[in-house]
Amino acid sequence: MENVNFKKEKLRKEVWEKMEKAGLTLFPKPCFGRIPNFINADKAAAKLKMIPEYKNAKIVLVNPDSAQAPVREMVLRDGKTLVMPTPKLKKGFLIIKPENVKGKERFASTIKGAFKLGEFIKEVPSVDFIVEGCVAVDKRGHRLGKGGGYGDKEIKLARQFSNKPIKVATTCHSIQVVAEVPVDVHDEKVDYIATEKELIKVEGE
To answer: What is the tens place of the pLDDT at every residue in 43-98?
Structure first.
């Protein structure tokens, strides 16, 4: 019997290869070993505006990968406070307030810009909504990251510092939505999947 980690790695390789072959990836390339940046990532980001919990959110946590840069920019343009984990959580988190980056939202949404314009914080503030990237996801909300466990850790930390339930979304290309993602006990699920084509609300098991 194949173990879960082996199955996960196999699925990651399949998705990375499929995306590269189809010419769907953007910088940084190749996408192997990464949360893949993809064509029409901005269209997937825009689908988040249909989610009530996003619309009502004042503070949004978004992962630092390139694929979610359009999400981070949109959060700031929508007048929401952005919380961004530093890559691999090495320097904790950054908080970026929209009023401090007026006219510089695109730059602030990059890692370089966030480091320059954001403020370092050790603990996560109470956030209202979370967006994470993925390598693959299934319609039951099982999310597969690049293998470092950082996405799950970011979600757990945000929930630990919050006094309310928080919904989680992922943005990805429709090719990344697969029939089934292998799951482990510590894996955090997502509630919404936003692709360039549609918004999928995850139904309960």
So the answer is: 999 999 999 999 999 999 999 999 999 999 999 999 999 999 999 889 999 999 99
Measuring CA to CA, which residue among 36, 50, 128, 43 is closest to residue 82? 128
Listing DSSP states for the chain in one string gives ---HHHHHHHHHHHHHHHHHHTT-B-SS-S-TTS---BTTHHHHHHHGGG-HHHHH-SEEEE--SGGGHHHHHHHHHTTPEEEEEPGGGTT-EEEE-GGGSTT-HHHHTSHHHHHHHSEEESS----SEEEE--SEEETT-BEE-SSSSHHHHHHHHHHHT-SS--EEEEE--GGGEES-----TTPPB-SEEE-SS-EEEPPP-
Q: Render pLDDT for 120-146 as a digit per residue (tens, 0 to 9).
A: 998 888 999 999 999 999 999 999 999
Kindly give, in sequence order, each residue whose CB lies less than 8 Å from that of residue 203, ignoring residues fewer than 6 positions away: 139, 140
- How many structural domains comprise the chain? 1
Identify the CATH number of the domain in which residue 180 sits. 3.40.50.10420
pLDDT above 70 covers a percentage of the chain that reads: 99
Boundaries of domain holding 136: 4-201
Residue 120 class from Cβ within 10 Å (0-12 exposed, 13-18 middle, 19+ buried)?
exposed
Through-space distance between the first and last CA atoms of the chain, rounded to whole angstroms: 24
**Beta-bridge mates of residue 81:** 59
